[in-house]
UniProtKB/TrEMBL annotation:
Binds 1 zinc ion per subunit. Binds 1 Mn(2+) or Fe(2+) ion per subunit. Zn(2+) binds at residues 95, 98, 135, 138. Fe cation binds at residues 110, 127. GO terms for cellular component: cytoplasm. Pfam families: FUR. It comes from the Bacteria. It is found in: Cytoplasm. Belongs to the Fur family. Its cofactor is Zn(2+); Mn(2+); Fe(2+). PANTHER family: PEROXIDE-RESPONSIVE REPRESSOR PERR, ZINC UPTAKE REGULATION PROTEIN. GO terms for biological process: negative regulation of DNA-templated transcription; regulation of secondary metabolite biosynthetic process. This is Transcriptional repressor.
Length: 142
């Protein structure tokens, strides 16, 4: 895990981004937890180590990490963006009760993108697939 974080930090440095302790901590937290936290959850997790850090600092750093291609912002219509440091091709399944998000892999959907381009004349820049259901924990509580 440390090498993955270091690789990401090296990539940022190569693009001229200054690596502050807060940026390092935010990126490390996202890569270690992989639980798609909100900015507030990231702030609460890191606040004991960075008591002078504000929620705005977290948002600004997340914005920079998104622009650098290191983090994806996930929006699910509940007005609270979640953040994912896994920028590989993968998809999400979302629990309708507790909001937990899990990653899953599926063969590429490039054929669907090509078909959509041919049928509509659009140039496809990407896609998002998300499934909805009830997670195992919520099923057991029911």
């Amino acid at each position: 895990m440390a090498t993955r974080v270091q690789h990401a930090l090296d990539q940022l440095k190569n693009t001229g981004v200054r690596i502050t302790p807060q940026r390092h901590a935010i990126l490390s937290y996202l890569m270690e937890t992989m639980n798609h936290p909100t900015a507030d959850e990231i702030y609460r997790a890191l606040e004991p180590r960075f008591p002078n850090m504000s929620v705005a600092t977290v948002y600004n750093n997340l914005k920079m990490l998104i622009e650098a291609g290191m983090v994806h912002e996930l929006t699910y219509g509940d007005n609270s963006s979640r953040f994912d440091a896994d920028v590989s091709d993968h998809y999400h399944i979302v629990c309708e009760k507790c909001g937990k998000i899990k990653d899953f892999s599926y063969p590429s959907l490039e054929d669907i993108e090509r078909s959509a381009e041919e049928e509509t004349g659009f140039v496809v820049h990407g896609h998002r697939l998300e499934l909805h259901g009830i997670c195992k924990s919520c099923q057991e509580q029911a």
